[in-house]
Write a structure and sequence with these properties.
Distance between the termini: 28 Å
Oligomer: single chain
Number of strands: 8
CATH superfamily: Medium-chain alcohol dehydrogenases, catalytic domain
Radius of gyration: 15 Å
Structural class: mainly beta
Shape: elongated
Order of helices and strands: EHEEHEEEEE
CATH class: Alpha Beta
Strand content: 35-45%
Length: about 110
């Protein structure tokens, strides 16, 4: 599974790299696995990459303030969501092929049947 990683602060094209990470594995209770469909660049992320944002994340850092995903797996106890639902993840690591997040951090956009 690949994701974008910020290695240092500076020019975005020089400090961000696509890296290989571990496979997600099955979600734990109250978690969901997501396939990223779209993850735009929030203007704040440019400032983060340049080291000019109000706070700096510890490095290396994963990026992606915004994103729309499709649920691919549900952990035990997850209610209100189903595999195939399209959601927005409110986490900050959406520049990836896939992510695993707590279900409480999701906003439903639509379902596959919509």
């Amino acid at each position: 599974m690949q994701h974008v990683e910020l290695k240092s602060f500076g020019l975005p094209r020089e400090v961000c790299k696509m890296v290989d990470g571990p496979k997600l594995g099955s979600p734990s209770a109250d978690e969901v696995n997501l396939r990223i469909e779209a993850a735009p660049i929030n203007p704040a992320e440019i400032l983060i990459m340049e080291g000019k944002y109000a706070s700096k994340p510890p490095l290396p850092a994963r990026l992606g303030i915004e994103g729309v995903q499709t649920i691919t797996a549900l952990g035990d106890g997850v209610q209100g969501f189903a595999v195939g639902d399209r959601v927005m993840s409110m986490g900050r690591a959406n520049w990836a092929q896939e992510i695993k997040v707590p279900a409480s951090t999701l906003i439903k956009v639509s379902t596959e049947a919509d």
